[in-house]
Design brief:
The protein is α/β, with parallel strands linked by helices and about 400 residues long. It folds into two domains: about 110 residues, 2-Layer Sandwich (Enolase-like, domain 1), CATH 3.30.390; about 260 residues, Enolase-like C-terminal domain (TIM Barrel, Alpha-Beta Barrel), CATH 3.20.20. Helices cover about 35% and strands about 15% of the residues. It contains 13 helices and 13 strands. Strands 4, 5, 6, 7, 8, 9, 10, 11, 12 and 13 form a ten-stranded mixed beta sheet that branches. The chain has a three-stranded antiparallel beta sheet with strand order 1-2-3, sandwiched between helices. Helix 5 runs parallel beside helix 6. The radius of gyration is 20 Å and the shape is globular.
Length: about 400
């Protein structure tokens, strides 16, 4: 079997735009007619630039090759152009192509991918959602001081909505804007707001619901430690990415100074970067994203490294449903799985993009028994929503705010 052709899709995400502005998918086609789907999670270049990079990589390293040869594919792309180091943009593209190959492998073997990566460990997967607005856009008017992102009472009300739906964990990030000039020292107002948000949500949902405190590397180690001390009495399940991801030892300083577990990984790629996190005891929860980390086999290697350090996995998802499906495959076959991120209940446009939506019941994802990744892209829906903008999938503030 060889891969004979491929196709790319750059899909605009309509309002409320949960999961980002657009999604980038790839379809691989074999000479036997088997199709595999993958998704890129890359925000460093415009969508159509990433698409061009994806096409170039597929033409060089995928077409004409056997989809079963995952290690060969990985080494060829990882070493492209004399790189041979963690390059987040290149590895994101590799991730999409690799997961599409696994989709093909699973279909060829008539097995879900998780059965080929160690077998099913979990019958169901605990899931959480970010606290999203109940109406309107995920990118709010910055002058709206009653929005769920800035008003603790609105956030608490929304958290209660999610608990009523069956969620046992919710995530929120009230710590203030994040910019290319981070990390810095939190202001007094940011410390007060972060504590008030966490306290108000804790009071609303009670002690049985886990609170996931998300930041995006806004702070210095000293600033993050100050914030952690304010949050400790409220017992969040984790403190996410408290400092920028470029200095693992700085994150380790935070981890060693608080009782709150540190979570990180959405901006990291390959076993090489995650190994440093584990070696330095910088985090006990790894949030690898299957559209960025280097693919499913690479993620399984990272999961094994995490087992050695008794660290757990909480796959990250702020993208489309093909990455979500790959996250499910990894989680299902990993003994050290903790919790899975989803876009609410995996409904809305995320579900429309699939021929059959992901099954979510009472706070848990039920892994599909279908072969491959367990989902198929609805190509008609994808083609009906082309992305034509120039914004990046995620954009940080361009000026200092602290």
């Amino acid at each position: 079997m060889i891969i004979k052709d491929f196709e790319t899709f750059v899909v605009g995400n309509p309002p409320p735009r949960f999961g980002g502005r657009y999604f980038i998918f790839v379809k691989l086609v074999t000479d036997t007619g088997i199709i595999g789907y993958g998704e890129v999670y890359c925000a460093t270049f415009s969508a159509h630039t990433v698409e061009a990079m994806l096409k170039d990589t597929a033409e060089r390293y995928v077409v004409g090759h056997d989809p079963f040869h995952i290690e060969r594919l990985w080494r060829r792309v990882y070493g492209a152009g004399y790189t041979q180091r963690p390059d987040v943009s290149l590895v994101s593209i590799l991730s999409a192509l690799e997961m599409a190959c696994w989709d093909i492998i699973g279909k060829a073997c008539d097995k879900p991918v998780f059965e080929l990566l160690g077998g099913q460990v979990h019958e169901r997967l605990r899931s959480y959602t970010y606290i999203y607005p109940s109406k309107g856009d995920v990118y709010p008017d910055k002058s709206d001081d009653d929005h769920v992102y800035v008003n603790p009472d609105r956030a608490a009300e929304r958290a209660l909505d999610y608990v009523a739906q069956g969620f046992t964990a919710v995530k929120f990030d009230p710590a203030g804007p994040y910019t290319v000039f981070d990390g810095g020292m939190p202001t007094g107002e940011e410390l007060d707001r972060s504590e008030a948000f966490t306290r108000r949500i804790r009071e609303a949902v009670g002690g049985e619901i886990d609170l996931l405190f998300g930041t995006h590397g806004q702070f210095s180690p000293a600033g993050a430690i100050r914030l952690a001390k304010r949050l400790e009495p409220l017992d969040p399940l984790w403190f996410e990415e408290p400092v920028p991801p470029d200095n693992i030892q700085a994150m380790a300083r935070v981890a060693g100074s608080t009782s709150i577990p540190i979570a990180t990984g959405e901006r990291l790629c390959t076993k090489y970067e995650f190994a440093q996190v584990l070696q330095d005891n910088a985090a006990s929860i790894l949030q690898l994203n299957l559209g960025r980390v280097g693919g499913l086999l690479e993620a399984k290697k990272i999961a094994a490294l995490a087992e050695v350090h008794h660290a757990q996995l909480a796959p990250h998802m702020y993208c489309g449903p093909i990455v979500g499906a790959a996250n499910i495959q990894l989680a299902t076959c990993s003994p050290n799985f903790l919790i899975l991120e989803g876009i609410e209940r995996w409904t809305g446009f995320q579900a429309e993009l699939l021929d059959k939506p992901v099954t979510w019941q009472d706070g848990y994802v039920i892994p599909s028994s279908q072969p491959g990744l367990g989902v198929s892209l609805n190509e008609a829906v994808a083609r009906a929503h082309p992305w034509e903008g120039n914004n990046l999938h995620l954009e940080m503030g361009q000026d200092p705010v602290r």
